[in-house]
Amino acid sequence: MKKVSSIGTRKESSLHRTLKFQYAGPGGKTEAAVGEFVADGINKNGEYIEVQTGNFGPLKKKVKEIALNNIVRIIHPVAVSKIIEVYEADGTFLYRRKSPVKGTIWNLFDALIYAPILPLCKNILIELAMVDVTEKRFKDGKGSWRRKRISIRDRELSAWHERILFKNPKDYLCFIPFKKREKFTCALLAKEVGINVWTARKAIYVLTKMKVIKRTGKKGNAWVYTL
């Protein structure tokens, strides 16, 4: 008997677990086996649910296989705001603060850049869950050096904002504020929508791979694009 492939539930965050149960919903179930894989859930309509808090690279094989004969909805949470709680290694609470980083719809490209043609695959839907998150950190000496060895132990959903669903490539036109045949550069896109150039580059890379936009030439040292 073939062993099914699954990501263990022991390491899943509270955020991941909450979304998994909410999207499976009444009449659905979590940890649903399909072929050689195990999806995070399946709702009452027979739609498979896969919650992905990180980038979409690890999902490419699994989701494509499931989507051959089923609809798959990838749920990607974006932290609109984040509260950070810091604890001693023994669990003693120290303090909490609000992170200055605010998530937006453009965070989608942080995940899609590792699987830019996933939205082109039949039966795959991508949904952003715009939420507020509480992140629990512990001073245990095991975390990243960037956080001074403080570990992130868990992330919890603290509030909902909205759900943003992308069904097909046309839905991604919302990221391009230019008219048909209007030319633009990466810098112009960044300026027009109020994002940094690095985010604009990632968006342009993904949207070019998806054939939502195309490269048409150069203006000085900058590539020029159009719908």
Q: What characteristic shape results from the CA principal axes? A: globular
Radius of gyration: 20 Å
Please bin the fraction of helical residues: 10-25%
Strand content: 35-45%
Order of helices and strands: HEEEHEEHEEHHEE
CATH topology of one domain: Arc Repressor Mutant, subunit A
How many runs of DSSP E, i.e. beta strands?
A: 9
Number of helices: 5
Distance between the termini: 49 Å
Give an account of the 3D structure.
- By secondary structure, this protein is an alpha+beta fold.
- The chain has a domain at 175-227: Orthogonal Bundle (Arc Repressor Mutant, subunit A), CATH 1.10.10.
- Helix content is 19%, strand content 36%.
- The strands form two sheets. Strands 1, 2, 3, 4, 5, 6 and 7 form a seven-stranded mixed beta sheet that branches. A two-stranded antiparallel ribbon has the order 8-9.
- A hairpin with a 2-residue loop joins strand 1 and strand 2.
- Mean pLDDT is 92; it is low at 1-8.
